[in-house]
Amino acid sequence: MIPIRNAVPSRYPPVITWMLIAINCLVFLFQDSLSPDELELFLQQFALIPARYSEAFASGDADLEAADILPFFSMMFLHGGWLHLILNMWTLWLFGPTIEDRMGHARYLAFYLVCGFAASVAHVMFNPTSIVPALGASGAIAGILGCYMRLFPMARVVVVVPILFIPLFFKVYAYVFISLWFLIQVQQSMMALLLPSASGDLAWWAHVGGFIAGFALGPLLVRSHQGYRPYYADEGVFGFDTKGRI
């Protein structure tokens, strides 16, 4: 199922979501301009390599400097290819504005970074010996999905299911769509523990960690009714109410 529409309306322009998408795209264009050797050095410095931290803690040298912490955040602005970038930015574009609208710009940005950090920590915890650079905004975006399911479980998400060459469109509850997505992440994460060679290079545990962080923290950051004017009865998206329900 490929999501193509979020039915929950937003009142305020998603400035931070636009900014995050722009930064991710600009960083990727910079990556794409590097030579293979330059790209390898760039990823060694800014992508997240779990083995680097497990060795430090195993030796008792846990005094990390700012440069050591930076990859926990910088990795969420890097991507491994055009498809990786497009899928992440499309999901962020669909669901990010709704969460930003309910939190406000500053809280949303902090929420996004915290979810990305939680995703990085989860990846290091469950892949302590990995020397593969981890990168991508998936963990932070997973936090947005977790928050969305917590705030709008009964909202309808319009998805397309391609059957051969025929696209079929459906409206599904947000909790159904996101729960199925999360179960896939958990299943793949467990397979990565049991059969590391069959898991590929995807940071499945980062998705799980980011989702749990967003599900738990998101509702705590939603601004009060005094700081956010509720929708009137006649507002919303055509065919849906103000919480994305039919």
From TrEMBL:
Gene3D superfamilies, sorted: Rhomboid-like (1.20.1540.10)
The species this protein was found in: Bradyrhizobium erythrophlei
Keywords, ordered alphabetically: Hydrolase, Membrane, Protease, Transmembrane, Transmembrane helix
Domain spans labelled Peptidase S54 rhomboid: 70-223
Compartmental location: Membrane
Domain of life: Bacteria
Chain ranges passing through the membrane: 12-30, 69-96, 108-126, 132-151, 158-184, 204-222
GO cellular component: a single term: membrane
Record lineage: Bacteria, Pseudomonadati, Pseudomonadota, Alphaproteobacteria, Hyphomicrobiales
Predominant place of localization: membrane
SUPFAM superfamilies, alphabetized: Rhomboid-like (SSF144091)
Coiled-coil region list: none
Record carries keyword Transmembrane helix: yes
Membrane topology reported for the UniProt record: Multi-pass membrane protein
Molecular function (Gene Ontology), one example: serine-type endopeptidase activity
GO-annotated biological processes: proteolysis
Name of this protein: Membrane associated serine protease, rhomboid family
